[in-house]
Design a protein that fits this description.
The protein is α/β, with parallel strands linked by helices. It folds into five domains: about 170 residues, Rossmann fold (3-Layer(aba) Sandwich); about 60 residues, Helicase, Ruva Protein, domain 3, CATH 1.10.8; about 120 residues, Zinc Finger, Delta Prime, domain 3; about 100 residues, 2-Layer Sandwich (GMP Synthetase, Chain A, domain 3), CATH 3.30.300.180; about 35 residues, no CATH class. It contains 27 helices and ten strands.
């Protein structure tokens, strides 16, 4: 049975640990001077060598070779640790052994002397997973362990460890390994395994690992299992779902040239080819970061982990794009990565980011024609030109109202609204069957609805504007109109709006100053109630006015 490469090529000496010289050199000096601490805390990202360094330190403490050669990997103790059969090396996975009872069991056994080596070594991996009670039980043992015991704690999240534990350990922070060092180590593995690889392929593997050596070696193992003797850049791109650097360069060139059509065509081609849009977006951000570094420093040496031709292309594009545009593009595409995870149009967030970077962020106009048609009352429109007599509105045509609801007044249809409210579950079921679950989920996000004689309005708040855009298509509006016609027996036009309240197109409003026909004039009402006046026939108008005047004069005098 074959062994995975990351296990086969695990570092066995301090010199084989890649990219952590600040840790290995300190430990070697401590071994040389006899100043090894009783407890260490190894913190850092995954796959950077924490557990491997802990095992190497355990070898060095128990190695029987001369001090300058430790660990030798030849003595029985070193070989036992390498093969995982050393009794005095106890590795504990705190993710699954995190209770206080597990730590109490450790405390009971730590007092027994080692059976093979000079020291009993306890390696507690993912130590931040221990419970609070377990940490408290471990404190006294960490502070005053037996002289034959050494503790090495490893974690990827040191901020979750109590300060009382950290203060009892010597802390070493492992850093992410640079891509260039990972690529060199991968080249060494490829040569030792009898394979061949393109330098650009190894560099892409190293960059995709993001500083994690274990991920890089695992991906190389996958590439060596591809069935060919040579690892090529094309193979790596296929496995990662990445896009070749030429396409990424062309896309950024479209941004620099403000060529929206070219960028949209490239995205369409990527969708047809089945490329990973998230990976492509990350590559675009990385390319834009290179432009930003060149624009800020004009120092190509900062991009030494990139191919020379890519750096040359970036230098040309850095002169074509403005720094402000580059920074906005980085922010906009970074936001698009999270939006790419869902949606029935997966490429839409990427297309919107492209359009906004090239043409500027789309902002709603202060007052658009559509908004004016939806919000301006009919009475207000008639009072715009007071010199002209208002025209009598014609009886609305039903067909015209359905085809263009914004041109015909719409009154709320309370009866239909109540009927749809009672049958709303049926409406949801029909929407899910005919339009799909995504459209139903989008409609459930609507803030308000309004029902007119021939119009149904859905209103979405500003934060759901993108959801509104997803369903505001001719096909969806037609399907929803068909469903409403199926339920009500008459055609409906569906309208999607942005706002807190749904507004029917051209809905007439009544001003608060309007008076009904039967309402009395305030002066007449005052005269009747307070002055004792009487309302006479039209023929006696002058007499009644005279009486009102006389009565008013007497009351005021």
């Amino acid at each position: 049975m074959s062994t995975a490469l990351y296990r086969k090529w695990r570092s066995q000496t301090f010199d084989e640990v890649v990219g952590q010289e600040h840790v290995t050199q300190t430990l070697k000096n401590a071994l040389r001077d006899g100043r090894v601490a009783h407890a260490y805390l190894f913190a850092g990202p995954r796959g950077t060598g924490k557990t491997s360094t802990a095992r190497i330190l355990a070898k060095a403490l128990n190695c029987t070779a001369p001090e300058a050669e430790r660990p030798c990997n030849r003595c029985p103790t070193c070989q036992a640790i390498t093969e995982g059969r050393m009794i005095d090396l106890i590795e504990i996975d705190a993710a699954s052994n995190n209770s206080v009872d597990d730590i109490r069991e450790l405390r009971e056994k730590v007092g027994f002397r080692p059976s093979e080596g000079r020291y009993k070594i306890y390696i507690i991996d993912e130590v931040h997973m221990l419970s609070g009670s377990a940490f408290n039980a471990l404190l006294k043992t960490l502070e005053e362990p037996p002289p034959h015991a050494r503790f090495i704690l490893a974690t990827t999240e040191p901020h979750k460890i109590p300060a009382t534990v950290i203060s009892r350990c010597q802390r070493f922070d492992f850093r992410r390994i640079p891509a260039s060092e990972i690529a060199r180590h991968l080249q060494h593995i490829v040569e030792a395994e009898g394979f061949d690889a393109e330098p650009d392929a190894l560099l892409m593997i190293a960059r995709s690992a993001q500083g994690c050596m274990r991920d890089a070696v695992s991906l190389l193992d996958q590439m060596l299992s591809f069935g060919q003797d040579r690892v090529t850049l094309i193979q790596v791109q296929q496995v990662l779902g990445a896009v070749n650097t030429q396409t990424v360069g062309e896309f950024v060139a479209a941004l620099a040239e403000r060529n929206t059509a070219k960028g949209l065509q490239l995205i369409h081609r990527l969708v047809l080819d089945g490329a990973s849009l998230s990976e492509f977006c990350q590559q675009v951000i990385e390319h834009l970061r290179g432009l930003m570094m060149l624009q800020m420093t004009n120092d190509p040496a900062l991009l030494d982990d990139l191919p020379a031709e890519t750096v040359q292309q970036m230098q040309v594009q850095a002169k074509q794009m403005d720094l402000t545009a580059t920074l906005y593009a980085i922010k906009r595409f970074s936001a698009a990565i999270n939006e790419l995870k869902g949606g029935f149009q997966p490429q839409l967030p990427l297309e919107l980011a492209l359009i906004e970077v090239v043409q500027g962020e789309v902002r709603p106009a202060t007052v658009s024609a559509a908004q004016e048609a939806l919000t301006t009352p009919v009475a207000a429109k008639e009072q715009v030109s007071p010199q002209k007599p208002p025209k009598q509105p014609k009886a609305p045509d039903t067909a015209a109202a359905v085809s263009s609801p914004a041109e015909a007044p719409q009154l709320p249809d309370q009866a239909t609204a109540e009927m749809l409210r009672r049958r709303w579950s049926e409406f949801q079921r029909l929407v899910k069957q005919q339009c799909g679950a995504k459209v139903l989920g989008a409609l459930n996000s609507a803030k308000d609805t309004a029902v007119g004689k021939s119009t149904f309005v859905f209103a979405f708040t500003e934060q759901y504007a993108m959801v509104r855009d997803m369903v505001d298509t001719p096909q969806t509006r037609e399907q929803l109109g068909h469903i409403l016609q199926q339920m009500t027996g008459r055609p409906f036009q569906v309208v999607f709006q942005i706002g807190e309240r749904a507004v029917l197109p051209n809905a007439p409003t009544v001003s608060v100053d309007n008076k009904t026909a039967d309402a009395l004039d305030p002066l007449v009402e005052y005269a009747i109630q307070d002055l004792g006046a009487q309302v006479m026939q039209a023929g006696h108008e002058s007499e009644s006015q005279q009486r009102l005047s006389n009565s008013s004069s007497e009351r005021l005098s």
